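Task 17 of the worksheet. Students: predict the tertiary structure of the chain below and write it out as structure tokens. Keep your answer in the requested format; marks are given for formatting as well as content.
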Amino acid sequence: MKLAFAGKGGVGKTSVTAWTADWLARNGRDVWMVDADTALSLGQACGVTADSLPEPLTARKDLINRLIHAGGFLDLNPDVSDLPHQLAVDVPVSGGPLYAPAAGKKRLLVMGAVTNAGGGCACDANALLKAMLAHLVMKENTCVLVDLEAGVEHLGRGTVAHVDALVVVSEPSLRSLHTAAQVGRMADQLGLRRQALLLNRYSGADLHDVSGLPDLPGLPPLRAALPPLAGLIERQLHTADVLGLPEQQLVDTTLQRLMEHLGLDVCP
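Model answer:
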């Protein structure tokens, strides 16, 4: 299973990615989590302390020089097959001993931004990032969840062909839904047509019958909705960790429904 997650900044996309990874691991799946958002907050959302986070791949000048500039030429297709296992950090599965015997593994890779804040070309870092992402999506025979920025620039045409589905996360606001529609259109142009909209922080009475969304070209079909989670709101000023909420059962059920709509098999 290879899933990409996208959406406007601040809509809860990273939280949904963290919840999905943990839910899959608690169901026995091994999961690669790829933080490809410039906010670089997926690890902390999963409970990883700041000093335990791996250095972003695009900041590893030693690797960039060795793999991209080998022989004095710019290599846009470097061999990165050994890098994921070298650079990833293990992430604990929530739930304690109850899940330990049957739980899968969670591993985190942090990609980083592909732009140079000081100007100049970021082609070398971008080439390494895209090569790593393509390897994970196309070669790793396990679950791969990619936390993207609002767009889908990290997914080239060759990579996107191997992604099973795109989950677009949005709040129930016109600006957020416009971004979701834009993401949906971009992904469709790349050939990623299996898409689903997850409406986060929806305060309506019926989560299973959300109506009244604007008719925006490119907006993925609505497949799931989550209400504002009091447990998450209560802890947000104290920790970035979004796992182990009192509402975990509701989140798990919503994710299961989402995967069923996408036609994806959760069982290992």
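Marker's comment: Residues 123-139 form the longest helix (17 residues). The first strand starts at residue 2 and ends at 6.
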